[in-house]
Amino acid sequence: MIKTQNLTKEYNGKPAVNNLNLQIGKGEVFGFLGPNGAGKSTTILMIAGMIEPTSGTCTIDGVNVALDPLKGKEILGYLPEDVGFYANLTGYENLDYLGKFYPINDREREDRIETLLKSVRLNGVTQKVGEYSRGMNQRLGLALALLNDPKVVILDEPTANLDPEGVLRYREIVNELREAGKTILICSHILSEVKAVCTTLGIISQGKLVAKGSVKEVEDELIRQSNTHQKIVIKSINPELYTKIESIKNPDILEIARTKDGVEISVEKDIRPGLAEELKGTCSGITEMYLDRPGLEDLFLNVYRREG
Ligand SMILES: Nc1ncnc2c1ncn2[C@@H]1O[C@H](COP(=O)(O)OP(=O)(O)OP(=O)(O)O)[C@@H](O)[C@H]1O
């Protein structure tokens, strides 16, 4: 649904986005993460047709939005980080005015505004937008992004100004959109938020995609890149455990070390199911077995530090 091919943007001869190849399928909720200056906003702006790539292409549902802005208005909803509204109009009036630029009729627009204002909990609010809090402004921005019932929604830092209640409602809305088959790209620094709603993640660093996939796949890839290993920790009262494990031939076992109450096995990947099977019956006395590996937060910090 979203596709970039060798997408590159240079500023003053320096690449902000460097040969980015990204494919986001229908129904995916894709979390786009990366340190400050990594190239997230530049990528999003190119996908949304707001800035021109230096080279490469990007399309939404096969449409180059920059070349066909009218079609873009039909298929794309975009919530920028700082969304601007007319301060002297109410939320309803803003959506009504801005909605006239979308290819939907008056009746449909009015119905959708009512539904969306309810959805973001701004129905019945008569204040002018100039008097809105930042969170209210962001919720109105989300309503505007969904006004044309887009196939693809791009959200830039959508929870930055929301209170916990607002965050919960936002998560519900994203889940409703996913269930309706929409494709969503979320740019965020809030890892917990991304993990809560995204089906896939992409990590960008210095304009290049360094990992992509499910949370587990991204963790695996970042572990591989960071040269740290995951360990299987086994606690046991059986003194023969070490010898038994040493006798197991498995290329994913990198190193075995004795600990005071068992062993630790450095592994290429999680081999616990096979290991448990091998040890079953031949090595009693195991009291605990778990995988010790860095979490996404730590791995993500490594990427930040690498860039710094
Ligand atoms: N208009 C511009 N002119 C010159 N350089 C720019 C411009 N916009 C972005 N850049 C540079 O391009 C790089 C990528 O910036 P971008 O805003 O895409 O990063 P980002 O990942 O969105 O960062 P953040 O998390 O801080 O929003 C940075 O080095 C930035 O300084």
UniProtKB/TrEMBL annotation:
Q: What keywords sit in the KW lines?
A: ATP-binding, Nucleotide-binding, Transport
Q: Does the keyword ATP-binding apply?
A: yes
Fetch the SUPFAM superfamilies from UniProt. Answer: P-loop containing nucleoside triphosphate hydrolases
What range(s) does the ABC transporter domain occupy? Answer: 2-231
For this UniProt entry, the molecular function terms from Gene Ontology, in alphabetical order, are: ATP binding; ATP hydrolysis activity
The record ties this protein, via Gene3D superfamilies, to: P-loop containing nucleotide triphosphate hydrolases (3.40.50.300)
User: What family does this chain come from, according to its entry?
Assistant: Belongs to the ABC transporter superfamily.
Q: InterPro entries attached here?
A: AAA+_ATPase (IPR003593), ABC_transporter-like_ATP-bd (IPR003439), P-loop_NTPase (IPR027417)
- Under what name is this protein listed? ABC transporter ATP-binding protein
Tell me what organism the protein belongs to.
Answer: Methanogenium organophilum
Q: Which domain of life is it from?
A: Archaea
